[in-house]
Amino acid sequence: MKKIYSLLLFVFVLVMTGCETPNEPITDQSALDAASSTTRMAKGSNGRNHDGERYGSNCNRDHDGDGDHDNDDDDECDDDGDDDCDGDDGTCDEDGIVTLWAGKKYNAGTVTVTEDANNLYVTYATTGSWKLTETHLDIATTKYTKRGSPGQYDYKATHTNGVTSYTYTVPKTWAPGTSVHFLAHAVVGKYSGNRCSSTETAYGGTVVSPRYGSWFATFCYSIDDVPPPPSTYSVSGVTFVDANENGVKDAGESALANVAVSLSTGASAVSDANGAYSFSGLTAGSYTVSAAGVSGYTMSTAASVPVTISTANVTVNFGYVVIPPPPTYSISGAVYFDVNGNASRDAGELGVAGITITLNGSTSVVTDASGSYSFTGLLAGTYTVAAVVPSTYVTTTAGSATVTLTSANAAVSFGVLESGGPLQSTSVKARD
């Protein structure tokens, strides 16, 4: 019987003294005696939290069904003759941040109101070892004279494991200058790690202590005339190969990737595989967009384009034209037996194979079986062609020639006879 009584006593202690069940059961008699002492202390305190309201055994449990965890059935603020319970004249003078009062007198954190053009943002934030286990928010354009049931507030959320911050987003439906009143209620728990030891009812703002009924706190905030953020636009376009060189991106013209594009703001981009680039988030104003040069191309459009953004996006394309390779030419001819010695190849005069021909003294070829040779792929310029004739031959023409290539190929031939003799030099112009 004694063991059964001790077990029942232990269960009762768990219910009355904490938010969570301990990880290990109490098994020895000394621990049970300590638990019994704790139970007596709990009874001596009449099971109430710091503001005189009864607390429960769990950080996330509503004990009286009114959504505030405090077991207080009297949510009415009885009329004491001044219609406002606390003498507050309703003037909205807060700066958007108020204290979150736990148990009416403990600073558990803050409630902050901020806004943009479209929404109010009401943020609960705790301090120290406090955490939010529930939050409830009610909003009105008239001053609150009673707290009502938090479970019936406009906005509500349960935070099972406790959080240190939570924000409600409230659409703005009030005109600038409107005084908006708040009941920012919370249930806050004292935590050590993930363990909650006790809870308190909390409200943000100025504490109201009505003559009759439960305490609460409230505050107000004046809606500002927050202008919407400025509209933003983009400057975008493509870098492309302008096949017809008309400066316009036509159908079928291919993209030119990896082109560096910059904006006068200092922003830069590189065109992608489709030739596309973009600068976004730009407000109305004047800009200059520029594209870098690309090796092997000239531009069919301006490299830098000034643009003005007013109410729409802007498109700027950059065209590139392939630079054709420079023309090349050839110097060719033959070494032949000049039988009649007239320095001109006549019909029937045969070519001489195996004779070395040099170009500018560095490049050389050897005449083929017909006595012919050729240097090809030559850029416009001046060249010297020479025949290296064995001592068994004598030339009937100059042994070297200076050739200037401008717009056509050139031909230089060398006549020889079977006899030794000095080589002469002459200058030969390229012929069409």
Beta-sheet strand percentage?
35-45%
Total number of strands: 29
Total helices: the number is 2
Task: Briefly note the structural class of the backbone.
Answer: mainly beta
**Major sheet: size, sense and barrel closure?**
10 strands, antiparallel
Question: CA-to-CA gap between the ends?
Answer: 129 Å
The tally of domains stands at: 3
CATH topology of the largest domain: Immunoglobulin-like
CATH architecture of the largest domain: Sandwich
Question: What CATH first level of the largest domain would be assigned?
Answer: Mainly Beta
Rg for CA atoms: 49 Å
Q: What is the mean pLDDT?
A: 81
Which range best describes the helical content: under 10%, 10-25%, 25-40%, 40-55%, 55-70% or over 70%?
Answer: under 10%
Give the uncertain stretches in residue-range form: 10-57, 62-88, 420-432
What is the general shape?
Answer: rod-shaped
Write up what this structure looks like.
With 432 residues, the protein is mostly beta strands. The protein folds into 3 domains: 97-223, Sandwich (Immunoglobulin-like); 233-322, Immunoglobulins (Immunoglobulin-like, Sandwich); 329-418, Immunoglobulin-like, CATH 2.60.40. It has helices at 2-17, 29-44; strands spanning 97-102, 106-115, 119-126, 130-140, 155-163, 165-171, 179-192, 195-204, 206-208, 216-222, 233-241, 260-263, 268-270, 276-282, 285-291, 297-299, 304-309, 314-315, 318-322, 329-337, 356-359, 363-366, 372-378, 381-388, 394-395, 398-405, 410-411, 414-417, 424-427. Strands 1, 2, 3, 4, 5, 6, 7, 8, 9 and 10 form a 10-stranded antiparallel beta sheet that branches. Strands 11, 14, 16, 18 and 19 form a 5-stranded mixed beta sheet that branches. A hairpin with a 7-residue loop joins β9 (206-208) and β10 (216-222). The longest helix has 16 residues, at 2-17. The radius of gyration is 49 Å and the shape is rod-shaped. 30% of the residues are buried.
